[in-house]
Structure formats: structure tokens, C-alpha cells
Amino acid sequence: GEIIFDGSIVDLKIQSNSMGELKVDFPMEISQDKIRECIGKEGVTIRKIGEKTYTLNFDKTKVKYNELISKITQHYDILDLRMLDVSIDKVVQCMYEKARC
Questions:
Q1: Residue 101's pLDDT is what?
Q2: Considering the domain boundaries, does residue 33 fall inside one?
Q3: Which pLDDT belongs to residue 69?
Q4: How many domains does the chain have?
Q5: Does residue 31 form part of some domain?
Q6: Do the bridges between strand 44-48 and strand 19-25 make them parallel or antiparallel, or are there none, so unpaired?
Q7: How far, in Å, CA of 98 to CA of 12, rounded?
Q8: Range of 26's domain?
Q9: By CB count within 10 A, which of 20, 60, 64, 67 is most buried?
Q10: Which pTM was predicted?
Q11: CB-based contacts of 15: which residues, under 8 Å, 6+ apart?
């Protein structure tokens, strides 16, 4: 086994409060590589969740919502954009995904 988090539930909650999630619907299909190229930010996890829908997860202490939104809208039209609260479940999921890399 491998330890991917060694802290308290309080620490996990603090971490969940510092994580941001942006859900973006585009009018056309765009590759994850093109989105990554457009935003140019390390520390942003891009996940395709539908044919034209993506979520971007990031640390709000390092990346700001307005920066991501600005970079995306400079390059692409969007249909819908939602800023979501990140649950503790999502924080744990991101930890596991990072541990596998």
C-alpha cells in the first residue's frame, strides 16, 4: 500500500475549501490538449465529462477562477460556465489520481 494523505479530517476539509472546479460547456468538441494549451497552467486537471463538456479542477490559492475564464473565453466561445464547490469526495478522488501519475 501507499499513503497518499496523512492528516486529519479537518486538514482534508481545509484542502477541499482551497480547491476550485469550473465546468465549461462548449458549442463544439475541443480536445483536452487544446484546452491545456489555451490555459497554459500547471496544476489544473482537465476532465472531459461529456461530448462538449469539461471540468477543470485546481488549487484556488494558485489559480484564480477569473484567470481561467478569461483565457478560455479569449480562445473559444462557450455555451455555459459554472463555478462549483468541491466536495471532500472530489478532493480524495484528485489525490488518488495524482498518486497514480
A1: 44
A2: yes
A3: 94
A4: 1
A5: yes
A6: unpaired
A7: 15
A8: 17-86
A9: 20
A10: 0.72
A11: 91
